[in-house]
Each structure stands twice: as C-alpha cells, then as structure tokens.
Amino acid sequence: MDDQLHQTIGKLIAQNEIMMAQQDELYRELNAISEQNIELKEQLTQISIKQEHLEKKFEEIVPDLQFIANLKQRGIGIASVLGLFFAALGYYFDKLVKH
C-alpha cells in the first residue's frame, strides 16, 4: 500500500508541476495580451487626438472654402461679362477698320 501511495503522490506531484507550467505559460500570454492592449489604447488615444486636431482644422478651413467658392462663382460671372464686352468691342473695332 505504501508503494501505491507513493506512486499516487508522485503522479499528483507530476501533474501539479505540469499544471503549474501551464499556468505560468497562461500568465505570460496574459501579460503579453495586456501589454498589447495598453499599446492599442495609446494608439487609439493618439488617433483620437489627431482626429480632433483635423476636425478643428477642417472647421477653420470651411469658411475659407466657402469664400473661395463664392469668388469662383463671381469670377465666372465676371469672366462671362468681360468675354461678352471684349467680343462686342472686337466686333466694333472690326467694323471700324473695315470701313
């Protein structure tokens, strides 16, 4: 009976060592995952900060873009009027030169 008890205790000790090794491996993996999680949180924070910065810059640019769009519309109108004016002027000078 003593031999059986020693064998059982030996098996239990061996199984305990295996479980302890597995537990250590799980802790290492958990620590690695934890470190990755911390890095991802830092990256997300940086992305959030950059996004906020871009949103502020965009808000600053929007009035300028609207101003430029208005100038473009006015410019097209002015160019049309000037085009018609110079066409009429050219026609007038053409008639003066031919007479």
Task: Write structural notes for this entry.
Helices cover 98% and strands 0% of the residues. The protein has 99 residues and is mostly helical. The protein is rod-shaped and about 140 Å long. The model has no long low-confidence stretch (mean pLDDT 87).
Number of strands: 0
Order of helices and strands: H
- Gross morphology: rod-shaped
Helix count equals: 1
User: Could you tell me the strand content as a percent range?
Assistant: under 5%
Arithmetic mean pLDDT: 87
- As a whole number of angstroms, the C-alpha radius of gyration is 41 Å
Question: Gap between N and C termini, in Å?
Answer: 138 Å
Helix content: over 70%
Biggest beta sheet summary: none
Question: Which spans have pLDDT < 50 for at least 5 consecutive residues?
Answer: none
Q: Which class of secondary structure composition applies to the elements?
A: mainly alpha
List the keywords.
1 helix; mainly alpha; 99 residues
List the helices and strands and how they pair.
Elements (H helix, E strand, L loop, with lengths): L1 H97 L1
Summarize the structure.
The chain has 99 residues and is an all-alpha fold.
